[in-house]
Input
Amino acid sequence: MDFEPTDDQVALQTELRRFLAERIDHDARRAIAEMPGAVDRDLWRELGGMGVFSVTLPESAGGVGLGFAEATLVFEELGRAAVPGPLVGTFLAAGLDVDLAASAAAGEATVGLCPVGDPAFVEHLPALDALLVVDDGGVALAEPPAGARPVDRPLDPLTPVAVVEALPAGRPVGDGDLARELRTRAALLAAALQVGLATAAVEMATGHANQRVQFGRVIGQFQAVKHMLADAQVQVEVARAAVQAAGVELDDAAAGHQEASAARRAVDVARIVASRAADRATRACIQVHGGMGFTWELDAHLYLKRALVLDAGVGSPEDAKDALAAAL
Amino acid sequence: MRLRETPEEQAFRRELRLWLEETLPTLPPEPPFDDWEAKRAYDTGWQRRLYEAGYAGVSWPKEYGGRGATPSEELIFLEETERAGAPYVGCCFVSTLHAGPTIIAEGTPEQRARYLPPILRGDHVWCQGFSEPEAGSDLASLRTRAVRDGNHYVVTGQKIWTSHAQVADFCELLVRTDPDAPKHKGITWLIMPMDLPGIEVRPMRTLTGESEFSEMFLDEVRIPVENVVGAENDGWRVAMVTFGFERGTAFVSELLASKRLLADLVEIAKKTPWRGATAWDDAGIRDELVLIEAELEAQWALTKRNVSRAARHGTPGVGGSVFKLAYHETRERMGEVALRILGRARLALDDPTGVSARHLDHVHQRLYALSLSIAAGTAQIQRNIVGERLLGLPKDR
Output
């Protein structure tokens, strides 16, 4: 056992972090919010070119040839930069045996992901090329539904939402086994995104606590503030370990070194703790910023809102709790 | 990032599992509650078995009589012994996990030769004389004085929270050798034989009803100068080395035991009648149990991260503090839900009829968990460590 990231894994993560830090700042994020469906197609292709959507695809198929362990590192960085767009759906579609897969992998196509349920709330709809619809019985790939009504005030300004009265049936692309697999993967990637969001929130709050002066000293000196951030960071560290362990276990299961059920259970664990860590950290970030934390102008609310959006996706923490309860 | 075991690690696990299967049925019965002489005999007996089988000092270097196991193998050792229900390190905690590793890291060749073998054999029990009534979280303000007199220090003062002092042979003792130096600079780490004149040990009863800790009164105890570990006035640094071991892997057995406790609690919940169904059918209780399970599993992943980090960098960094903060909170909530499930069975810590005796351990555990946010650095101190060393927030001093 050696659960520290390898040099290659560190390099992969660092390179993506550097790229995103340069490419996406406060203003860029708000500019993307104004684009149709809040997807920056140029950025999407750049991400595709870097292999973000093809991390786990074999090199023979044009992928990066790595595993879900690495995918957790990549998605942590995407979360940390709060990159808008249907990241999880596009990643999952790239791995399917469908025509669209290659263009999803390349970042040419955007693919949404939605659980079955009417009326449906579909994210990023105006920018979608296709929609993956998942329920217990199977997976379908659908055209983006017509007749959807965009929501004026989506929860997350970077995640536009449209309401669809009935989801299109689409074309079946897999059975219940695939549905379970996609759910597991979606849960892991959402958890990794949440670890990234939580990390960014603690960093932002720490930066503020280090320079905001009240009562003649920086507020980070006050234990009331310091301890709140320490508690948030503790949950982030625990969640990060759980998410990365689950990625490793999924890879081990795929290679026949681990029971698939044990790997799924590791993902359930990661899903549950990452959701809680993101909630704790993003709330702490708002609290540490005081009144400014409650404003639209500051990015603090974007972290909180994205974390809340991710909790409602395919492979939700509620699903994970049910699965874990059934296993206990 | 690799969680899979190497062939060597797998072989180590198999061999250990076989040995445990053979050995555990031959152990004497567990000692009675709070009988420390009996507990000493039991714990040192187990240490002796480990020694004879080559498992003593599993993580100690081979040249000092240990097994030289990698941190991964140490984790396997702790996992397998817990799984098999083997005894805990108990009275041998300070000797094998604090004093021994500190003497390996900082002791002289003579000290190593003299003190390490009896620790490994289970011949000697050690206790820790660090905290004082006026020096708890602010340990560096300790006042027990050591005045040089020829080849001896004459030590006078008072220690507290000294685990197993009433059955210990030696004490790892922090004393002030330079009262004029800044508080971190005048401290020395001494080996104190517990049979010297002038040592009075008064066991203290904790809220669980046990007397694991003692107060220790030192009245002109003459300790040979050769018993200094590290250099005179360099004891704070040596103590930090000791704490480095304490905050690394010391809670692994605890965590694994907690996973077993949780599994047991789930079984109890499934059998406990509850408003026409079982306690497990109550969504509030089930959710909390599931959450605790997820947290313990996630903390196990963090433990592997910490152990891997320590293997690569020599120390887990602040990982131990992160772990402890997460763990104590989970354990407190586990105790709360346990008592909800137990209902009126919570009124007793033992059951003369034997009907519910096994369940009642959860009541003890509920009480014991209160110590987890206090012992080995309070939660408040740990939060300062995480805030300052991990996040880089400024000190409040």
